[in-house]
Specification:
Length: 489
Amino acid sequence: MSAATTVLAGTTIEGFGVDPWWLVLIKVIVVAVFLIVFTVFSIWFERKVVARMQHRVGPNRHGPFGTLQSLADGLKLQFKEDITPKAADRVVFILAPMLTIFAAFLTFAVIPFGPSVSIFGHQTALQITDLPVAVLYVLAIASIGIYGLVLGGWSSGSTYPLLGGIRSSAQMISYEIAMGLAFVAVFMYAGSMSTSEIVASQASGGSTDLFGFTIWLPSWYAVLLLPSFIVYVIAMVGETNRAPFDLPEAEGELVGGFHTEYSSMKFASFFLAEYINMATVSALATTLFLGGWRAPWPISIWDGANTGWWPILWFVGKLVGFLFFFVWLRGTLPRLRYDQFMNFGWKVLIPVSLGWIVVVAALRAMRNAAVDAQLYAFAAAAVFGAIFVALWLYDSLQARRAAAAGEGEPAHAGSDVGGDGTTVLGTDGSMDFDPFAGGYPVPPLPGQVLPSQVSTRASGRVPVAAGSGSRTDATFTTPDTTASEGGTS
């Protein structure tokens, strides 16, 4: 065995880059095929699980248990008419989905599927390559993929795709910050940004003394760095535009979002990229927080669990577990309002991540200085208490300011527009609402003029049509409030 192969078997990055070209090509093809097959499985799995949640059957016509339904859908998209809008920028319109799908495939280049194995007599790792900054490479490629969504929305020449693209960019920026901060604690504990070395650092746990007792610390960072894991799981759902964070594709607001004007295989490319991104963020979570390809307990008790080809099975099993988590969220939680979603990212996830990094850095510094465990446990509790009190005071201050200004939640359909606790009704008895309430207007139709929030709240007027019972935005009237308690005149 050569020196490079010996280093590779020790799960460090020095052994990468020595494989023959044909072996690298085989790895690339296998990973590409795996992602496509996993996407087909993910679509079928999602439809089946959601159907069971809703007491339906789900796909059951094509193939055993409907497993070929996703393939049938792909063939249907292949033969659909490819339409390009007249107002679209044709070159950018075509390149946008290609950019998104290429970025989705590239991120798997540094994901480890297993340990070092022998392939046709060559000892190699079950990983295409590795870098000293492999995790930063994944974040960089993911940020490039967002250009495909933004350019796809912009080049469509339509209002709603443009709004969806802008939402995607704002959403990706805010949640990638929280995602990157969640990785910092892992880097501190692992001492590396290499994916293979991070997996190696989770090989075994250790023991420490706490308040006179010897306790065993687990090896997986999902337990040891639980706040970072929780932040990352939330951020990865927002990063992939999945429900309940699928605001760039909100059907009730943006028709279909950034891909509204796409059809045929261009639309299928966006669809494929979304599911590959689900696999990417799940694989990254598995690598950084769940021990990567290493077997979970009690399977890890078996001596051969983490050798040979068996680790691929544990790795794929963890991916399927995250896939179920994605489907479970989609089948249970309603979509958030966009301002709530952005506030949660900037005002909750990012501050919590920064505070947790301070705690982890302090603990690591005290441990390196051989400070007693009781002291840094007390310090961690004090820091967490200070963060909690600060957030509570900030929330209380915001509530007092809102109460003093007489502002409530932004109005929506059927809500109290006037602020008096009653639902505002039109003269035809239907519910009315202020589309400008809260500062997030509904885009007007061509030639339509919407009432302003100030004029509607100040006068209590609702729009009605002159001489008819239907509502319009050109004429206003004040509803008769002298009606009896049972209705409105």
